[in-house]
Design goal:
205 residues, alpha+beta, six-stranded antiparallel barrel, two-stranded antiparallel ribbon, 6 helices
Length: 205
C-alpha cells in the first residue's frame, strides 16, 4: 500500500508541477506586456489557444480572491484566506475550490502562481490561475478502482484537503478530513490527537 501511495503522490506532484510550468508561460507573456486588453485580437488568440491546449479555464487573480476570465467574465473564487496569503507570500497553490459567476456555482481544481503586478482593463492583478475539471486529475491518477467506491484524499500541512475524487461539495473547501472522520466516529479521540500530533511533527521537521 505504501508503494501505491508513493506512486500516486509522485504522479500528482508531476501533474501539478506541469500545471505550474504552463502558467509560467502565461506569466512571461503578461509581464512582457504589463498592461493587457482582453479585446485585442492577438491576446484573444493567445489566451484561447492556451486554454484549448491546457483544457482549462484561465483566471487572472487579485489579492482578494476576485478574478476575471480571458473572455472578460468577472467571478469570485471561494478559497481560504490562508491560500490568498500563500499567494501574497510568493507560494504556488493547488486546491479544490468553488467558483461563482453569472449566478452559477461550479467547482474545479485551481492551480495558481503569484507574479509581478500587471493590469487588465485598468485593474491590477498579482497572480495567474487556471481551473481544471477534477475528472482530468482523476483520470491521471487512475482512480477507478473498487467500482468507483474508493476515495482518495490529499492533505496539506494543516490537514486540510487539497484534492479528492470524492464529489461531495462539503470536501471542496478548507476542510479537515481528520475532524470529519472524528465526527463520523470513524476514528477515536485518541487516534485524532495522535494523527494531529504526527502532522504537526512533520511540519516542524
Amino acid at each position: 500500500m505504501e508503494a501505491v501511495v508513493e506512486q500516486i503522490q509522485q504522479t500528482y506532484d508531476m501533474q501539478v508541477s506541469g500545471y505550474y510550468r504552463q502558467l509560467h508561460f502565461v506569466e512571461g507573456y503578461l509581464c512582457k506586456e504589463k498592461k493587457i486588453s482582453l479585446e485585442t485580437e492577438n491576446n484573444r488568440i493567445f489566451f484561447n489557444a492556451w486554454e484549448k491546449e491546457s483544457e482549462s479555464t484561465l483566471l487572472f487573480l487579485q489579492e482578494n480572491g476576485k478574478a476575471i476570465t480571458s473572455d472578460g467574465t468577472k467571478l469570485k473564487v471561494d478559497m481560504p484566506s490562508k491560500l490568498l496569503l500563500d499567494l501574497r507570500n510568493g507560494s504556488n497553490i493547488g486546491k479544490l475550490v468553488a467558483l461563482e459567476f453569472e449566478q452559477v456555482k461550479k467547482d474545479g481544481y485551481l492551480v495558481a502562481i503569484p507574479c509581478q503586478e500587471y493590469m487588465i482593463n485598468g485593474e491590477t492583478y498579482t497572480a495567474i490561475g487556471t481551473v481544471y475539471d477534477h475528472s482530468k486529475l482523476d483520470s491521471m491518477l487512475n482512480l477507478g478502482g473498487y467500482d468507483g467506491s474508493a476515495y482518495l484524499f490529499m492533505l496539506d500541512d494543516d490537514g486540510n484537503i487539497t484534492y479528492t475524487n470524492q464529489k461531495d461539495d462539503i470536501f471542496f473547501r478548507n476542510y479537515s478530513l481528520l475532524k470529519h472522520l472524528k465526527s463520523d466516529h470513524a476514528i477515536t479521540e485518541k487516534e485524532f490527537d495522535s494523527l494531529n500530533k504526527k502532522i504537526a511533527g512533520e511540519k516542524r521537521e
